[in-house]
Amino acid sequence: RCAATFRQTDFRGGCNGASIRLAPEKDWRVNVAMDQVLRILGHVRAQFATAAGALSWADLIVLAGNTALEEVGSPPMPFQGGRVDATDGSRSDDLEPREDLNPILEVKDTMDLMGLTPHEMVALQARPRSPSQQRRLGYSGSWTTNCCE
């Protein structure tokens, strides 16, 4: 989910910094239940702590995303480490996705901000269809909170 905040216009957002684990980003509605994912990743991260340092949260989140995609059939994705962790979430203060805009204009604006092609935007918006993931996030059926839609 962190990739969805990247803006090519000012290079804010994105996965570098792992701001998704910090306020305000961790409290956004789109990141509900992210604390559960981060708790699991925290156990993984602890296994890689060394005297020279630790695996950054930012690298771990990207690596976990790549691995998850590969596990469901994506071609192998190259990984390049070196991301660093932010100490506060202030660079995310005004990046929260808005829900009050015209959906078509919002998608076009988001694509422009992120420097994405239409195909890249569709791929970024893909969601796992796992019923357990849907329940954890409060959805049922086809990503709706109303079972009858």
Question: Could you characterize the architecture of this molecule?
Answer:
- The protein has about 150 residues and is mainly alpha-helical.
- The chain has a domain at about 1-95: Peroxidase, domain 1 (Orthogonal Bundle), CATH 1.10.520.
- About 35% of the residues lie in helices and about 0% in strands.
- The chain is built from five helices and no strands.
- It has helices spanning about 35-45, 55-70, 105-115, 120-125, 130-135.
- The protein is globular and about 50 Å long.
- The two termini are about 25 Å apart.
- The model has no long low-confidence stretch (mean pLDDT about 85).
- It comes from Eutreptiella gymnastica.
- This is Plant heme peroxidase family profile domain-containing protein.
- It catalyses: 2 H2O2 = O2 + 2 H2O.
- Its cofactor is heme b.
- Belongs to the peroxidase family.
Name some characteristics of this structure:
iron, peroxidase, oxidoreductase, Plant heme peroxidase family profile domain-containing protein, 149 residues, single chain, metal-binding, Peroxidase, domain 1, mainly alpha
Q: Residue-averaged pLDDT, rounded?
A: 83
Q: β content, as a range? A: under 5%
CATH hierarchy, class of one domain = Mainly Alpha
Distance between the termini: 25 Å
Q: Taking Cα atoms only, what radius of gyration do you get, to the nearest Å?
A: 16 Å
CATH architecture of one domain, by name, is Orthogonal Bundle
Low-confidence stretches: none
Count of individual beta strands: 0
Give the % helix: 25-40%
Q: Element order, helices and strands?
A: HHHHH
Contiguous helical run count:
5
Q: Structural class of the helices, strands and pairings?
A: mainly alpha
If you consult CATH, what is the topology of one domain?
Peroxidase, domain 1
Sheet with most strands: none
The geometry reads as globular
